Amino acid sequence: MKFIPAAARRPIFIRAVLVCAAVLCAVTAGCGSTGNGRARTDSDSQDDETPREFTGSFAGYEWTVPGGTVFVVGNRLVVENPAEGIALMLAPEAAAAAAQQFGDRFYAEAVVRPTAKGSGKNKNFGVACRIGKTASGEENFYYAGVNWNGRNQLGTALTPKGLQFGSLVSDTSVWSAVCSDQPYVIRCEYDGGTISGSFNGIPFNKSGKTSYTIKDGETISAGSFGIYTNGDSFELYSFKIGSLDTGRAALKLSSMNGDFITLKEDSTPFVLLNENNWNVRTGTDAAEFRVEAFDDAGTACDFSVSADGAAVRVERTETGFTMTPVAVGSAAVTVSNAADSSVRKLFRCTVSKGLTLTDTDYGSYAAFYPQPGTAGVYEDDVLSITFDGPPVLVEDAVYLYDAASGALVDTIRIGSETVEIPDGTGKTTSYLLKDFMVQIDGNTVYVKPHYGALENGGSYYVVIPDGAICGTVNGKPFTGFDREQKRWAFTTRAAYVPVNAAALKVGTSVAADYRTLQAALNVAADGAVVSLEAGTYREIICYKGGKNVTVAGPAGNARGAGCEIVGINCNAYNGGTHGRAAFYWSGSDLTLKNLTIRNAYDRNIGGTAQSEALFFANGAGKKLAAYNCSFKGFQDTIQTTGKNWFYDCHIEGDTDFIWGYADVALFEKCDIVMLDTSKDAVPASASYVFETRVGSLSSALVPKGYVLLNCTVQAAHGGGNWFGRRATAKDADTDYYDQAAVVNTTVTGTVQAPLWSVGNEPEYRAPDAAGNMNVGWKTYGGSGFRAPAGVPYAGTISDAVYAAEYGNRNLIMNRVFNTDTGAYGPSDSLWNLDPAIFE
């Protein structure tokens, strides 16, 4: 390894410590090493109250670099192409001094900028502490950081996914983009056996969980500190270790404005980046921010905000401030922590001329829904304009005004914005949605007012700036609607309470209780049947209300044809499994009939991202039944937990498109289609049906997992097709079995031998003395493929076990294998599967 001095360059943003020229010269002139080298200068004195600062110049301390190329540029330490794992580590003397000073309650904080993604498997990037060995001699460390899939997480080397959090929410995740033009502040905290973390001062928080407890056997009594990576190149501006009760100066700006990249702390989105760009037009609504500032001890303090140009007006509010574009030009808005002015956020604002409002009479208004002057419009309705040909969405928004007061009641942005969806609990769940609230389907633009924006018994009119949407209506160029003429006006229906909350109808007819499924779910009684009329429902469904519900499309259709719920969502927009589905259900049983659920996210436009059509997120004890339905997506089409029965359904996707943590997920008489995306702009390299995470290695009782029974599989992917692959598809340890079975199933196309993809060996139990695979990947009967042979991790089901355990749906659903006794027995909870439940 060679240390190369380079021209000094000032860091892009705050928190890095600039060292004096004499020290810098000493470092750059004198350091050079290869292999596991060290670089050092004379140590400065350190009192017991002061955090230890390790800058990129190595001033006063030692670093150990396991591999790659390392050099110094100004006050930054630049690491290129390091080995996967610990890429940079304090040498023993420096680490021991910090450990002695701060004991079992400390933080380690890095100001670091990733510059290129590595090629390792762990996909993690963060701050590591206690790099050392456990009592049993295993190499281990604790860390807080991010995952290149876009998540924050806490963990150890032995349990990398200790606790995963919601992610960096943006149009394209910061971490999916990999490289950054500014450094981030990543902090790992250790408090006597638990670890927590923060990113740019925003604590990791998911549903109130903020810390991870180190597992027994994984604890480390002492160790070093450093940077843990995927083999990623990076620049280190500063590395600081201090007492846990210090170094807490922070500045948190929460905003519902969709123009800024945010990170959620629990359910609240905070501005993530320290430097932000805001490109707006005059006339755009003010961006509102709530500000929380904290001093070094973590005590609330004041903040300041200022603008250096006339293009943006800044005003303090009771809880924060607003930024309003008022003139063409540019301005820089700086928000600073009053207790530590180095902790600040910058907004570079560029203001261009606002779009104009133009009055045009389009003659006939049959192309508009609701037509001007319509009374009794549902409060949850969707507006639409049908153009002469395909329109183009440009920019800005659609605005709704109260006709009586003239007040703006809703701004529906073209592009992306944050939306609060009522989830049946009396609360809302926040989603970042892109190209959804205003979307195109053929020649029609659909506009979805925000939930609750339209009130019962109200009068409203629509304003659309000239140039926001391009196209023609009745042969005339569409110039929108101005505020003066109020041409597109309507009134909503009076306050409405459904006659029977146990039998609700959704659709476009006058007999419907609601226009949207979400509105009906939010008032549904326990055991309710929500009937959908034929049509397309453009919704993100999020239900956590705890009522058992049946959602049914019209009877007699073919696998839900003509009755479709379609959403656009993915991990890049709303990171984490609980945020990215088109249809999310938690807290109760669900029955689906005669409908289609489709996630219309297009990775050819937005890039590869997990994007469930359906996530049944209940955990053990809850039941999902689906009949005559279709589920359409690409990566991760269906994710389930609990017990599931899909009967006479269609499921399509390409990557792990049936996956989850279900005890049993039975697919009976279903058509499974492995889509060919090999020639797409952003293709999947191959197709896998299953990725299963069943039971627990610590429990003797193993349920049947994911089972195809009497199904058809169309293996169409040009890059290769497999029935499944190992849970997580990584080499990290897991705590669940790769449990799946393909029974009496017909395959068209080619499933590659040995049917299951093994980049890494799955978790399974060896076949019994009769050769029967009870826990693991297995097949029985069927046609169009050969049973796996010559591999230990996959096998077959014997005739005797088939007859006793897989011969019908109730045997599959209600019996488990006992790894201690080597025998099958009844499960703790029984579910009698009878097609009559679908009648």
UniProtKB/TrEMBL annotation:
<dbReference type="InterPro" id="IPR000070">
    <property type="entry name" value="Pectinesterase_cat"/>
</dbReference>
<keyword id="KW-0378">Hydrolase</keyword>
<keyword id="KW-0063">Aspartyl esterase</keyword>
<keyword id="KW-0732">Signal</keyword>
<feature type="domain" description="Pectinesterase catalytic">
    <location>
        <begin position="509"/>
        <end position="679"/>
    </location>
</feature>
<feature type="signal peptide">
    <location>
        <begin position="1"/>
        <end position="21"/>
    </location>
</feature>
<feature type="region of interest" description="Disordered">
    <location>
        <begin position="33"/>
        <end position="53"/>
    </location>
</feature>
<dbReference type="Pfam" id="PF01095">
    <property type="entry name" value="Pectinesterase"/>
</dbReference>
<dbReference type="InterPro" id="IPR012334">
    <property type="entry name" value="Pectin_lyas_fold"/>
</dbReference>
<protein>
    <submittedName>
        <fullName>Pectinesterase</fullName>
    </submittedName>
</protein>
<comment type="similarity">
    <text>Belongs to the pectinesterase family.</text>
</comment>
<dbReference type="GO" id="GO:0042545">
    <property type="term" value="P:cell wall modification"/>
</dbReference>
<dbReference type="InterPro" id="IPR011050">
    <property type="entry name" value="Pectin_lyase_fold/virulence"/>
</dbReference>
<dbReference type="GO" id="GO:0030599">
    <property type="term" value="F:pectinesterase activity"/>
</dbReference>
